[in-house]
Amino acid sequence: MKKVCMIVQDPMVKGGIAAVVNGYRGSQLENDYNIIYVESYKDGGKITKLLKGICGYFHFAKVLLVDKPELVHIHSSFGPSFYRKMPFIYMASWFKVPILNHIHGADFDEFFVNANEKKKKQIKNVYDKCSKLIALSTEWKERLAQIVEEEKIEIIENYSILHEDAFEEKINRNSNNIVLFLGELGKRKGCYDIPAVAERVVKKVPDVKFLLCGAGSEEDEKAIKKLFEDNGTINHIVFPGWVRGVQKDEVLREADVFFLPSYNEGMPMSVLDAMGYGLPIVSTNVGGIPKIVHDGKNGTCCEAGDVEGFSRGIIALLTDDDRRVNSAKESISIVKKGYSLEAHLELLEKVYEIL
Question: How far does CA 40 lie from the centroid of its chain?
């Protein structure tokens, strides 16, 4: 059986990369290939992260020397993640092992377009050592083509796991008037826009609840909560923190609308997760989102920062049962047609075989 060394995060890390990789564990991929996981990052303080990274480099060196994998599959993002993954890329290139770099980054302008020439040269040099890059959408392929030749880039979109029992529950009950957000509480995810949206929605749906499941910096969390307090909607907001496992399953089942007002995204796993539960989506037309959120069909897709558009979309879904149910059905249909885990793994294994 062919050996693939996959550079991943600790399974308990918050965010989309860990969510993608966690779906691989126990899947058909592990039946078809001998997947050797090397963990390079975990949440925590600076010392915790440093020690995890150092252990990851030593583990990887041992894998290269002893296990001799035929392929290295690296999951990376921009910013600090890029620099953490550089040693893995250099080490694999020294051993002449093909490198598949799975790019999950979001803010391309900050990472590359607006970078100085020295940093751009460094990024190009690192990515040139990779045999292939995986982009999460056509738009992201076009962006990454500014760094490497287009022929090196394969598009493999993220996936969703279907929960048809949850979908059946949703379409056969009345609305709970719960709007769900999953992710980092900060500016990139559009969280500073949510208080203004809540203020408008409350006027039309007085018993609405916004569940903001996630965490951010202390500064961002305080600022966002203050905005809710200032406009009088704090009693309509719940901050459960990061949710996983059973708790995450519960909030996705209880919710009626999924809301992600992001300014930058790749192909957000949170939206695909929500669609797998039959949730209508209100989000923005950034990154790969318009591929999965079809405006007027399975929800509403607005310009980032369009508070009025978000509000109208949420109100319509909460006050019109037929629209909510039809949008839920469309979310499930979109997942079934092209965003199943099986379809994702089939594309991934094709790239493995090319390399």
Answer: 18
% the chain with pLDDT above 90: 91
Contact 267, 292 (CB under 8 A): yes
Alpha-carbon span 202 to 121, nearest angstrom: 50
| Region 83-106 average pLDDT | 96
Residue 105: per-residue pLDDT: 84
Q: Please tell me the pTM assigned to this model.
A: 0.88
CA 40 → CA 37, 48, 293, distances in Å?
Answer: 10, 11, 33
**Can you read off the two tokens belonging to residue 322?**
């037929």
pLDDT of 14 higher than 90: no
Spatial separation of the C-alpha atoms in residues 166 and 278, rounded to whole Å: 7
Question: Is the pLDDT reported for residue 106 higher than 90?
Answer: no
Among 33-37, 120-124, 241-245, 347-351, the range scoring the smallest mean pLDDT is 241-245
